[in-house]
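Reply to dn_fold:

You asked what the input looked like. This is it:
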Amino acid sequence: MTRHPAPPRPRLFAITWPIFSEHLLHASVGLLFVWLTARISDDTAAAFGLSNQIMAFFIILFRLIGVGASVVITQYLGAGDRKGAERIARASLAASVWLGLLSAAIVGFGAGPLLSLMKLPPGLRPEAQPYLVILGAVLAVDAIIATMSAVLRAYTFTRDTLRLMLAMYALSLLAGLPLMFGWGPLPRLGLVGIGLGFLIARVASLAMHIWLWRQRLAVTPSRADWLIVRRAELGEMAHIGLPGAGENVAYRIAFTWVLAFVAAMGSGELATHTYLLQVSYFVLLTGLAIGFGTEIVVGHQIGAGHLHDANRVVRNALLWGFTASATLALIAALLGKAIFTFFTDDPRIIAAGSQLLWVVVLLEPGRTFNLVVINALRATGDARFPVGFGVFSMFGVAVGLAWLLALCMPVGDCLAYGSQWPPMNGCAALRCSSVGDCWHGCPMRARRAAAFRRSSRATRSRFRRPNVLQSVGRKRVSLTSSMTT
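and this is what came back:
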C-alpha cells in the first residue's frame, strides 16, 4: 500500500476557532428563531423548542458514524495512510444515508406519538406536529451533512466547514422568514415555514458538501458509496463511534425524559426551559469547540505515535476550557434578568430562568472537563470508559432527582428543572479521579483495537508492519505516566 509522508501536525487553536465559530453561528441562529417564535407567543416558542429537542435526539444518533469516521480517519492521516482515510470516508456515506432515512421515517410517521410521549400540552399540538413532520425530512439530509462535515474536519478543513455552515444558515433565514411571517404574496405558515426553510437550506448544503469533497479531498462519491454499506469499514467506525454515540444517546434519552417532566408541569415551565437552553448553549460553546478540536489533534498525534505531545494538548485544552467556561457562565448568571427580559415579559419565567443560570455556573467547569477528556480518550481508541459513568449519573441521579423534585415534592420549578444538571459535575469528578486509570488502560484497549482491525480483510495489509497503537502496548507507554513526571 502506498504511504505518503504524514502532513504537519494540526495545532489546537487553528483547529478549534473555526469549530467555535461554527457552533456560535448555530447557537445564534437558534437564538434568533426562538426570539422570533416568542414574538408570536410563548406557546409557539415552547412548541418550537420541544420539537427541536426531539430532532436533536436523532441527530445524536448520527454521531455513531461521524465520530467513528473522524477518529479513524485522523489516525490514518497521522500515520500517512491517505488511501485508508479515503476508504473510510467513502464507506461513511452509505451508513449515513440509511441511518438518516430510518430516522426520517420514525419522526415523520410517528410525530403524533412522539409529542404525546413528550407530554406536549394539547393546545400546542396543532403547531408542533406539522413542524415535526417536516423536521423528519430535514433529518434525512442532516445525517449525510453531519458525516461529510466530520470527514472534512478530520482532514483539518475546519474553515471550509465553517463557510458551509454560514451559507446554510443564511439560506435558512432567507427562505424561512418570508414563509414564517407571510411576507408579500407568500402565506403565513408559522413553524411550518421555519421547517421548510430548514429543508431548503439543508438540500443546498448537501450539494455544497459534495462539491467540496471533490475540491479538497479529491473524492467523488460513486453510486455504490451512497447505497452499499461496507461491513468491514463500518466495523472500524463502530468500534469507536458506537460507544461514543451510546453515551450521547444515553444523555439525550435522560435529557428527553427530564424534558417530559418539565412539559408536564405546564407551558410556562416549558417556555422557561426553551429560553434557558439557548442561553446555556452559548456558555457551552467554548468547551464544546475545544473538546472537538482536541479530538482531532490528539487523533493525529496518536496516529503518528506522539503520545507526550497528545498529553500536552489535553493539558492545555483543559486550562483554556476551564477558564473560558467559568467566566462565561458567571457573566450569564450576573446578567440573568436582563437576558430573560429579552425573550419574555412574564415575571415568573424571568425569575425562574435567572435562578437557573446560577446552576449553569456550577455545571460548566465539570462539563468542560467531560468534553475535553472524553473526546481525547475517544481519539486514542478508548471510547468505552465514559459510558458506565455517564449512564449511572444520567439515569440513576439526574432522572431520578428530576422526577422526585418535579412531580413528587413541591420544591418549585427551579429546583425541579435544575436537578438534571448537578449530577454531571459529580460524574466529572469521578472521571477526573479515575482518568489516570483510563489513560493507563489505553495500551490494552489499543491492542484490542489493532486486533480488531487486523481481522478486516480490507485493512489487513496496513497492519503487516507494527502500527502506532501496537507499539504503545509493547512499550507500556501511557499518558498517565507522563502526567505524573
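The CA atoms of residues 26 and 207 lie 20 Å apart.
Hope that clears it up.
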